Protein 1
Amino acid sequence: MASSKEIQDRMKSISDTMKITNAMYLISSSKLRKARKNMEQVHDYFHTIRRSIGDILHHIPEMEHRFLEPVDGPNFAGKRAYIVITADKGLAGAYNLNVEKKAEQEYHEHPDARFFVVGLVGRHYFQHKQIPIEEDFLYSSQKPTLQRARQITVDLLEEVRNESVQEVYIIFTRMKNGLQSEPVMMKLLPLSRAQFRHKDMGLPEGDEPEVPEEFFPDAVSVFNQLAPITMQGIIFSALTESYCAELNDRMVAMDGATKNGTEMLQQLQLQYNRLRQGSITQEITEVIAGAKAQKKKRL
């Protein structure tokens, strides 16, 4: 049985740990609010870009482009590339593991695919599993910015133009609610025509957007400019959603750790009180026994 000194030392250690978990909870909560605010600030801009592409495809539905899936449907199959978004640190529950397992499953199904991993935890996991990744693709997942999304877009488009890859997918984490998140895989290239349909652009059903039917200098040139921006928006959204999910999972994990620490402190306090009560009882018994012995000697 542990001594009272050992119990007190353990209680102090748990109390110090709870200060850390509580601080991490508050920090994650503050960062989560900022990340959501940044996402809301650029949402309208990227939505407008998507609607512009929807306008082009509405007026020229037969348009073919290397960044766009064929008119007859997504029957294209080629070498794949995956952008896998993980965190730079742990202590976020199963956040990293869920994404890593999904990416590993894709690797077993497509062993010739190329993996572009964002975040230190994911890079270490893939290296440990001896899954080949792009070593020069070094990006952090902390505090997503438009500039970082733009650089990732440039790197991927260069691979597509060099015909190193034909299809690009992005694996990230999406928040289902305040307590749960799930890994999601989305096709990035070629762009799906379905995501630019008018009814998906926020318009009432049967309504037509008031847009010009002429594009300068031509529709293909306009699409060449808008497609990379659309990819940048999707990547930025995925980075931000993953970052929000990471912070939310860390909040849940730290809140659970703090509650567990409180329960452990209560149990240890009860154990300490019982041990101290037993020690006091033993001391009183010894004093009474000594007093009785002295009384007998006098008699």
Note: The beta strands are 80-85, 114-118, 167-175, 181-189.
Protein 2
Amino acid sequence: MNSAELTRLDGGMLEGGGQLLRIAIALAALLSKPVAIDNIRAGRQSPGLKNQHAAGLRLVTELCSARLEGCEIKSTSITFHPTVKPQTSKSYTADPKTAGSVALLLQVSLPCLIFSPSTTGEPSKLILRGGTNAPQAPQIDYMQHVLLPFIHKHFGVHATLTIPTRGYYPKGGGEVHISVPPVLGPLPAVTLTQRGAVKAIHGRSYVAGLPKSLAEAMRTGAINALTESGVDTALISIDAVREKPSDAVGSGSGIVLWAETEDGCILAGSALGSKRIDPAQVGRDAVRELAANLAHGGCVDEYMQVR
């Protein structure tokens, strides 16, 4: 690849966040096209790369044996020169050494593995570390209960995700294992225009390093808000759990809800707990987000639209 073939993008376009960076790098890797991105995260209060963005860039660099320039913390410009298609059927690790979102590391790497045909038939393995339930990002439970089941149902790709350790802000330290099976041919085309009625609402209300009563209060707040909006209690199933100390780093709380519909759609809503917010209100906030995703009438929620 020579410099004349380089595509240059303005990372400050639209919301000016990390989403443009992740999509552009994944597409560049899959298309084997070099790309330069300037004004990275120009729309954020602290522009430039953070640890989680740099870790994601290094992960995709390893996937396709790329040459990466400018990948330093706070850098606002990078260039990325892939040399081969993303290599599947291997094991990869990414760790921002912070509470940076594990879900966003998966977001940038998963398309590379799904859309690159396998040559050996062996699954690809990812070990991703950082924050499993981080602010301003999908919670890892969303990836486990919404994104991956959706991909399995509609595209036939049965990727699996396990969470040996959860990590919370500000320590991070979580670890997630993902196995992506080989994709031996083109993915099937999907037409999804009818959502159908909601047939079930599931959820996970969780705490780590805090009393289980907080998880139960979040669950109660969510159930009350759902029933007040007209949802039949028979459709609602929300677990309240307290993580074992050996299964979590740091303390945190939150709730993730997901609605399944008759036509195979899954839409979600979530909220993170805080010392400043009553736990019952956290449950109600998650219902509010879920309700907003259902209210627009689409077949996917706000997070799925950009995955």
Note: The chain has three domains: 1-86, 88-184, 198-306.
Protein 3
Amino acid sequence: MKKRFVIVITIGLCLAFSAPIMAASRSAWTEDFDAAKARAALEKKDMLLNFSGSDWCGWCIKLEQEVFGRAEFKKAAEKKFVLVRLDFPQKSKPPERIRQQNQKLAKVYGIEGFPTVVVTDAEGRLYARTGYRPGGPEKYLAHLDRLRENRMRHDRLMARAQQSRGLEKARLLDEALEVMGKNQVGPDPDVVAQIKRLDSKNLAGLRSKYEVREGLMRIMEEIGRTKDFDKALRDLDRLVASANPPPDIRQDVYYIKAGIYYQGKKDRKAGLETLKKAWQISPDTEKGKKLAEIIRHLETGK
């Protein structure tokens, strides 16, 4: 009887001491994506995926030290997110299951560099990309709140679009894609196709907007393969002439041309002149003001 009593007490003590340990591990960063996904669904939270090179990537280490490793960040972030670390170390070897999981997820989310921070809903559907940002936990948390707000605004616009028709629906879908663009998420091809069908006569300028964007992607991909900068400049001029895109898209084209002059052809003068043409299209818009800052910096070095 005494032996049984001791066993019961021992089990009770183990459970008592293990509870806080379990709670601590539950609230820490996890490496198990499937477990994180299940927890996110259960607790109705989003997921924050940190693709990192923890022992070699300078910016990853900086992000960990300044933000993700700080107790105040974890305490606040875990109210809204399940935190998942997907690490690609070089000096240590993770378990094979984790290594394969991380490689698969890097392909799924199109990871091209480190650190990349991906924000998803509980199902793992991506709605934002970000990375290192200065300012510590408080500013990073505010940044994450803005990303979440953009996602909610996108969802509201998509819901309104489903109740609309014609050009009004096209405009709402376009606005929803622009909101996600602020979250560094590319446009859904199916939604783009729908917008182009709805504005097939280009009455709202949306068909040409997306045709030019698609053309820009093709041209940039070709530059990467051929390094033929002169052909790229000619193709960009033809693209604008044929599609007659709205002002903000024409600014994008000129900005890309300026980059080709600067980085490809090493022609600083032509690059600066092209930036000024971009600015002159719409000088008072947010994009125009950013262009003005770039021009001022290039001219003065400040």
Note: The longest helix spans residues 136-162.
Protein 4
Amino acid sequence: MTRRLRLTTAASLTLLAALALGGCSAGASDSATDSGGPAFGGDSGGELGSEFGDAPAAEEAAQDGEVSDGRSVITTGHLYLTVDAPLDAAEEAARITERAGGRVDGRTEYSPDQVGYAAAELLLRIPSATLTATLEELRALGEVEELTLQTDDVTREVQDLDARITALRSSVERLLALQDTAATVEDLIDLETAISDRQGQLESLEAQQRYLADQVELSTLRLTLGSDETAPVDEPDTFLTGLIAGWESLVAVGSGLLVIAGVLLPWLAVLGALALVTLLIVRGARRRRARAAEPTP
């Protein structure tokens, strides 16, 4: 009877242990599923759009850094304009950006005296909420040769940083509370070391958080302003445009030949004069020889 009771008790304990292990495994699996896995596992957003063929669609897609569904999106782009006066257009582009609440992070200008033509390049930081309206104002400065917009979804990075910063702040607060109750000098030193380490990590994460917030809030646009001399050449696509292109190339070749002739003409004149002088000297020498060779009567 006692042996049967022991066997029943052992079987019951084994069954309870199996159920407990099964519950723990299910709980861990559910926890992993709910947490969504590692913060940086899989695709973290990546490029949502590289080069948009349709410029208005690109502007609409990148209109806001914080889009309506709560995602955090970084927008970058490049705009190439052909304008009559690139340097004046650069001034106006800077004013447009500042009126929109943005800023100019970089600016390079080339005067005609330096490279033979005027040009300018600006690195603009434009508020994402007003990117579309600001782009419309910038496009009105001249003829749009190229417009490229690219978006990068950094929602998971932002959420991961927020969670890590919150956890580190809580950890620092707990360590500061323990510091007041430290019983020995060794405990106090260990706590100060741990607090210093946590605060260093916290400051680094907060710096990353501020950088991402700035990139999301302000879109980055590289604006290139060129003149007609540097404008991209449109490829002919009809008979008339082909005829015009052929005539322009013929005129360009003729102009080039005239330039070459103008460069060579002074040299040819000098060389011709030297050749004429040489010819006269040679002829004079031949005549003197001929006279000397004639018999004396």
Note: The first strand starts at residue 47 and ends at 49.
